[in-house]
TrEMBL record:
This is Probable allantoicase. It holds the Pfam family Allantoicase. It comes from Mycolicibacterium rutilum. The gene is alc. Pathway: Nitrogen metabolism; (S)-allantoin degradation; (S)-ureidoglycolate from allantoate (aminidohydrolase route): step 1/1. Belongs to the allantoicase family. The lineage of its organism: Bacteria, Bacillati, Actinomycetota, Actinomycetes, Mycobacteriales.
């Protein structure tokens, strides 16, 4: 969707990378671990889920309250920085620097760097590490606007660093990409092959009117209905579906289809179909009735190695989570 910038410019439609999950989200385990300054508004706001809010003439001890990260006005040369640890390390396909509600106090320019860190060194050590690599060159941004930047990199990253030139405020930093786990941590038992944190990804779906299908492979349990995937009401004879790429080719032993918090809008039934690398379809779960607000677990008998799974729901509705437990081939 196009946006009207504060200079009257109409921004381009958001690129396709925004379809991918935001790897930095707090709800995925992301954290803003360091910033050189946060005088006016806390750095942690950068990765909060949902759009930034604003209430005019709402003043705290340090001035107008902003739902974002805001530094003081610089009176000396330099720039301000914040470091975000990704909740799910992976391949970064694009970044959105959202300056929502920052109109007279947004940074004129920004850049974004990334780094892959092993282990758990202190935040100050990560911030000072010489290994940062630029993934978004220094670029102009606009106030009260979602500023998207496509990233071309095939490197697995664990942290990103946002730099503002020279100072100002950013409401949200979205880091869209594909999860890529540390393979050394897999293979010790059954693995959720659909999980975003293990390398799973939603490739396509029939409808995402109310919420993104990427939500169903997020970690943890849903806390509200909005944490899942919900489609519009169908008025035809079809059904809704979602297509997932697994963390890797593997065998699925058990499926969990979770309709928690979906009470009057859960699907009536669901089925699962696996796909081999050659495109052959493998039945995993026949059309099976579902209950509202329930975590269903279904043992699966198929032993084929598959790399994609299609979930069909009948006819429409919403799911909180989909778990596909098994082992990598």
């Amino acid at each position: 969707m196009s946006a009207i910038c504060d200079d009257g410019r109409v921004s381009d439609p958001e690129p396709d990378f925004t379809w991918l999950p935001d790897l930095a989200l707090r709800s995925l385990g992301g954290a803003v671990i360091w910033a050189n300054d946060e005088t006016f508004a806390e750095k942690e706001n950068l990765i909060n889920p949902g759009p930034a809010g604003y209430r005019a003439a709402t003043f705290g001890h340090k001035g107008q309250v902003y739902d974002g990260w805001e530094t003081r006005r610089r009176r000396e040369p330099g720039h301000d920085q914040a470091v975000v640890r990704l909740g799910v390390p992976g391949l970064i396909r694009g970044v959105v620097v959202d300056t929502a509600w920052f109109k007279g106090n947004f940074p004129p320019e920004v850049s974004v760097e990334a780094i892959a860190v092993d282990g758990y060194p202190p935040a100050e050590q990560i911030a000072a590490d010489p290994g940062w690599q630029t993934i978004v060159e220094r670029a102009k941004v606009y106030g009260d606007t979602r500023n998207p930047f496509e990233v071309h990199s095939e490197t697995r990253w664990t942290h990103v660093r946002l730099t503002m030139y020279p100072d100002g405020g950013v409401a949200r930093l979205r880091v869209h990409g594909e999860g890529m786990p540390d393979r050394r941590q897999l293979g010790f038992g059954p693995v959720d092959l659909a999980a975003l944190e293990n390398g799973g990804l939603v490739l396509d779906c029939s409808n995402r009117f109310y919420s993104s299908p990427q939500n169903i492979i997020f970690p943890g349990l849903a806390q509200v209905m909005g944490d899942g995937w919900e489609t519009a009401r169908r008025r035809d004879d079809g059904n809704d579906w979602v297509l997932l790429r697994l963390a890797g080719p593997g065998r699925i032993r058990m499926a969990e289809i979770d309709t928690s918090y979906f009470i009057g809008n859960s699907p009536g039934a669901a089925s699962l179909t696996g796909m081999r690398a050659d495109g052959t379809h493998v039945p995993l779960l026949p059309r099976t009735d579902l209950l509202p607000d329930t975590r269903h677990r279904f043992p699966l008998g198929a032993t084929d190695v598959i790399d994609r799974v299609r979930l069909d729901i009948f006819p429409d509705g919403g799911l909180a989570r989909l778990r596909l437990f098994g082992e990598l081939a």
